[in-house]
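Sample entry (157 residues):
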Amino acid sequence: MGLILRAATGADRDALVEQFQGLNVHEDGITGDRRRDRDAAIASLEAADAKVARSQGHALVAEQDGAVIGHCYLTFERHPPYVTERDYAYVAELYVRPEARSQGLGRALLAEAERLARARGMKRMLIGVVIGNDRAQAAYQRFGFSPYTTELIKPLD
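Predicted structure, serialized as tokens:
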């Protein structure tokens, strides 16, 4: 059976919780500020679902041989009035299970997100990446993303 990209359903919840937990664990290894427990993964999933619902966006899953192996959450957002091209699509979540990486799955999910963004009339699509997640940043740049903004953090101990 081949790769299927489709809308997420309630039946995907357990797989998505696992994947959100995997993303939290991965990013915690870079930032040191992510919770790694299942409850945090559930909260992350619920927050992502709420963003999708609020923006009338899309929650996509990648399925292969009946198993969910990745996801991409696309929201539709608006910049403040001082930005000339205010409306944009935002890849709010993107994850591919470790065993499915380097097979073009992330690229396929991004291509579907781009297709949906274009269908919605968007002229730009943004994605965030944690500094230090060099592999993801390189993949996004190969897909055509380029740096747009940089946020800096200062711990206030």
